[in-house]
TrEMBL record:
Entry protein name: beta-N-acetylhexosaminidase
Reaction(s) catalysed by this chain's protein: Hydrolysis of terminal non-reducing N-acetyl-D-hexosamine residues in N-acetyl-beta-D-hexosaminides
Active site, renumbered: E286 (proton donor)
PANTHER family xrefs: BETA-HEXOSAMINIDASE, BETA-N-ACETYLHEXOSAMINIDASE
Keyword field contains Hydrolase: yes
Gene3D superfamilies noted in UniProt: Chitobiase/beta-hexosaminidase domain 2-like, Galactose-binding domain-like, Glycosidases
Family (UniProt): Belongs to the glycosyl hydrolase 20 family.
Gene assigned in the entry: exo I_5
Enzyme class: hydrolase
Length: 723
């Protein structure tokens, strides 16, 4: 951990420690292009802020802001520029309403500064969407990508096709924790029953939201998914799916002419509802094309159009929809899969699977919006502590978000202007409440806003990290539910010394805050040891660590049990092999004192597919043993990883004759949340032994009701502790 001392910030740090009011230092996010500070402060109120528009300004979203003796003056290139100047002024003011005397000249780097929200997997009420827009506006985001339709919920009133909302805006809920699992849509008539979940936006709701966004200079881009992710729509109107597909199969049939009439009818009403949006987003991602291969109408269409495969059939579909959307005066945008089979001539590509699609499209002369999932998917984890709510996929901490550059190498310099900008996406499979959406959004949105607004030459992580401290206070004052994940310590490195000691290094995403730790398992206080550059552990320990901010714990407590236990670095032999894709690091994985995170894709897990885990540890000498501790992952919602059904432990002095020391059945847990379940397996009496055999019984073939019924269960484990 490095202490954060930057030139010019020392006074601020000193002030932050005093009990007096903080000075109104320049801590604006996103960072303005140019700041010239003067001496003194001016009280700013409604009476001494003057605004004007200067259309001669080169960027209509740019502004000049001057705080002087007479108050504040903002000149914008347009009303939007004035609005952004006012956002900056709000951040300049301290709690007493004073702003420093300053001159700021500012304009955004990108014109597409976007934020997305999936309201299909979970529905969010109109009032929350407006609050979400407030948060975006505060960060100078100007584009709201509204993901209105998907497989498990249609959220937009369409007069011509009323069944979309009558039949496909609600679903039956089996598991209140995960109403997105399974597709069992429910009729609107059941909307008020306890086992029914859902909702939709009326046309009046949409007009109200679009107007609210307009006042904040945010354009709402509607997304109507096609041809895939359309289970809800084809459930309501099966006549637009392939005749050979099962009901609610999720892909429109481009072999049927009437499918295009249906979608055009929807587009007509969407165009009318979103007059400000130059774009209609058609999704276009993750289209499984097997149904088209099996459909005689699709095959006929292929033959008639001379299309060589299903990719070209998709291209035909997208191309036709683009022509229609263009005829309505709108441009089409879609995810990078719309490149498959040849891109429609005027389409804009939203590159999500990585940068490659965007690079290809930009170099071919198409507009591009960069949304690479490894940087700006905010449904991914932002912390590595088990306290984090269940998230999707990988880890996109705030540092990673800040490192995102929408113009990657590979785009020829003369094509860079095709990159309109970038955005972050929030898919809501695991996000059920508005509070949870805010938690995933903040503070990562602060990093994103600086990436999209501020020129790379003015970007500086250290300065951003420091400004973020103020930004979190602003969030708190507004009542926004931000995450403190970036304060939570994690183990950044660990290694064994030749003397048998273990050296552990801790890190946090945000530096400059004291981390306190203990080695006896107790929760650290400010009186506990302060972490400096490493912790050297020489005897059995449970390491706990927590960060303090403003004298209070911030983020979660890191707890690492079983360091230097009797099994640490023991020789392990395997009666059943671990899977080659999930080695956890190999034969030492279960005794290396390294723990995995609660993600199915964390390579620190050791996996056993369809078999038991059955290992024998050689502790090197006969010792007096009292039990073992193990942990297993279960992740029903999106993997086949299940808890074992039974744990059995044998001991032996010679490695030949083994005696059962403990044996217990494990109650199945059908919780759909991802969970790491610890098991403390105590022996009835202490046992003298050198060898410990541990067997965890595999759950076998996944039962009916499991999302992957019929597949073999996996066991995931990461460490065996022996007392
Ligand atoms: Zn078809």
């Amino acid at each position: 951990m490095r202490n954060l001392i930057l030139p010019g910030l020392a006074a601020l740090l000193a002030a932050a420690c005093s009990s007096g009011p903080r000075p109104a230092e320049i801590a604006v996010i996103p960072q303005p292009a140019r700041i010239v500070e003067s001496e003194g402060f001016v009280k700013i109120g409604p009476d001494n802020v003057r605004t004007a528009v200067d259309t001669a300004m080169s960027n209509p979203e740019g502004y000049r802001l001057r705080v002087g003796d007479g108050g504040a003056e903002i000149v914008g290139g347009s009303d939007a520029g004035v609005f952004y100047g006012l956002q900056t002024l709000e951040q300049l003011r301290d709690s007493a309403g004073r702003a420093p005397q300053v001159t700021i000249e500012d304009a955004p780097r990108f014109r597409w500064r976007g934020m997305h929200l999936d309201v299909s997997r979970h529905f969010f009420p109109k009032e929350f969407v407006k609050r979400y827009l407030d948060i975006l506006a505060y960060h100078k985001i100007n584009t709201f990508h509204w993901h209105l339709t998907d497989g498990i919920g249609w959220r937009l009133q369409i007069d011509k096709y009323p069944l979309l909302t009558q039949k496909a805006a609600w679903r039956k809920v089996k598991d209140v924790k995960s109403p997105w699992i399974g597709l069992e849509l429910s009729d609107e008539s059941r909307r008020d029953s306890a086992d029914t979940y859902g909702g939709y936006y009326t046309k009046d709701d949409v007009r109200e939201i679009v107007a609210y966004a307009r006042e904040r200079h945010i354009t709402v881009i509607p997304e109507i998914e096609m041809p895939g992710h359309s289970e809800a729509a084809t459930f309501a109107y099966p006549e637009y799916a392939c005749p050979t597909a099962r009901p609610g199969s999720g892909i429109y049939c481009p072999g049927r002419e009437e499918t295009f009439g249906f979608l055009e009818g929807i587009i007509d009403e969407v165009v009318e509802l979103f007059p400000d949006s130059p774009y209609i987003h058609i999704g276009g991602d993750e289209v499984g094309k097997e149904q088209w291969s099996a459909c005689p109408l699709c095959q006929k269409r292929k033959r008639e159009q001379g299309l060589k495969d299903e990719h070209e059939l998709q291209s035909y579909f997208v191309h036709r929809m683009e022509e229609y959307i263009n005829s309505k005066g709108k441009a089409m945008i879609g995810f990078d899969e719309i490149l498959e089979g040849g891109l429609a001539p005027n389409a804009t590509v939203m590159s999500w699977t990585g940068f490659e699609g965007g690079i290809k499209a930009a170099n071919a002369g198409h507009d591009v919006v960069m949304v690479p999932l490894d940087y700006v998917y905010f449904d991914h984890y932002q912390g590595q502590n088990p306290c984090e709510p269940q998230a999707w996929g990988g880890f996109n901490g705030i540092r990673r978000v800040y490192s995102f550059d929408p113009v990657p190498p590979g785009i020829a310099s003369e094509n860079e202007h095709y990159v309109l900008g970038g955005q972050a996406n929030i898919w809501t499979e695991n996000i059920r409440t508005p509070e949870h959406v805010e938690y995933m959004l903040l503070p990562r949105l602060a990093a994103l806003s600086e990436v999209l607004w501020t020129d790379t030459t003015a970007r500086n992580w250290k300065r951003f990290e420091h400004k973020l401290d103020r930004q979190l206070d602003r969030y708190a004052a507004k009542g926004w539910n931000y995450a403190e994940s970036a304060f939570t310590p994690y183990i950044s490195d660990q290694h064994f010394g030749g003397d048998g000691s273990l050296t552990v290094q801790l890190a946090t995403e945000l530096d400059g805050y004291p981390v306190h730790y203990t080695l006896d398992g107790s929760v650290p206080t400010q009186e506990s040891a302060v972490y400096t550059d490493s912790v050297i552990i020489r005897e059995p320990a449970t390491l706990t660590a927590v960060t303090f901010r403003n004298g209070k714990p911030a983020g979660c407590v890191l707890t690492v049990p079983g360091l230097l236990n009797r099994a640490t670095r023991a020789k392990v032999s395997y009666a059943t092999p671990y899977n080659a894709a999930y080695t956890g690091g190999g034969d030492t994985a279960l005794v290396d004192n390294r723990y995995a995170f609660k993600r199915g894709d964390d390579k620190a897990w050791q996996g056993f597919e369809g078999t038991d885990m059955d290992v024998t540890l050689d502790l090197g000498s006969v010792q007096s043993l009292s039990g073992t501790g193990l942990r297993f992952l279960q992740h029903i919602a999106s993997t086949s990883v299940m808890l074992p059904t039974r744990l059995t432990v044998w001991t032996s002095t010679d490695g030949k004759d083994f005696t059962v020391a403990a044996d217990r059945a494990i109650e199945p847990n059908d919780d759909s949340e991802v969970l790491i379940e610890p098991f403390d397996v105590r022996f009835a009496d202490s046992v003298e032994a050198r060898y410990v055999r541990v067997k965890a019984a595999n759950a076998g073939v996944l039962p009916e009701g499991h999302p992957r019924a019929g597949a073999p269960a996996w066991i995931f484990t990461d460490e065996i502790v022996v007392y």
